[in-house]
Amino acid sequence: MIPLRHICNRWSFRMAGGGADKPSGKQSGGGKKKEVKKETGLGLSNRKAENFGEWYSEVVVNGEMIEYYDISGCYILRPWAMSIWEVMQVFFDAEIKKMKVKNCYFPLFVSPSVLQKEKDHVEGFAPEVAWVTKSGVSDLEIPIAIRPTSETVMYPYYSKWIRGHRDLPLKLNQWCNVVRWEFSNPTPFIRDSESKKILCSLSFGLNAYFDHRSREFLWQEGHTAFATKEEADAEVLGSSNYYGRL
């Protein structure tokens, strides 16, 4: 068996999220009139220092970046938001092409058998996996998962395509959307950043991604395979610089 080193660089700019709970609008006791909020100089009814969540929601909606949708956790990305994503996409795509990375696209749907094979990898995503269970009014004989991430979809085919050293390096990237059926105080574009290394018997991975709570988000992920750890390390360092420049 040929020892391989896989580098997985994943970055997502999750351009979807929810706002804070809206105030109830009830009047206070004692027959007092409801206090009327004054607009700020920008036409907003909330001030950043007083209620950041409400202020921020107003900014992204009034700034025409998003529009709320009738399915919670899913949001319409308006042209201004998409233009930001496109600028990032054009920059990053040009840089990774200099590294001889090629674009591809893998299917959105994942079979249960594939998820089971990679159960250790998707364990953290398991509660968030969305499933297609019907076709029209008929139940599917075998439910189909919607990808929460793409390792489970891509790596079986890496194993098929890499038969020897002549097939290395293999450098692929895909631009896609990902679905994770989670919902916990979502806020558009606000993210927690996490960077961690995954080291196992046949893979060396660097996950660098921006994370916030939403159900569907735009996603970039590069997956490259090398014959030596040194080559893999160099690729990780090179691509991580591009993430930093974003």
Automatic annotation (TrEMBL):
One of its GO terms (molecular function) is ATP binding. GO terms for cellular component: aminoacyl-tRNA synthetase multienzyme complex; cytoplasm. Residues 107-236 form the Aminoacyl-transfer RNA synthetases class-II family profile domain. Residues 17-42 are annotated as: Disordered. One of its GO terms (biological process) is prolyl-tRNA aminoacylation. It comes from the Eukaryota. Keywords: Ligase. This is Proline--tRNA ligase, cytoplasmic. It comes from Senna tora.
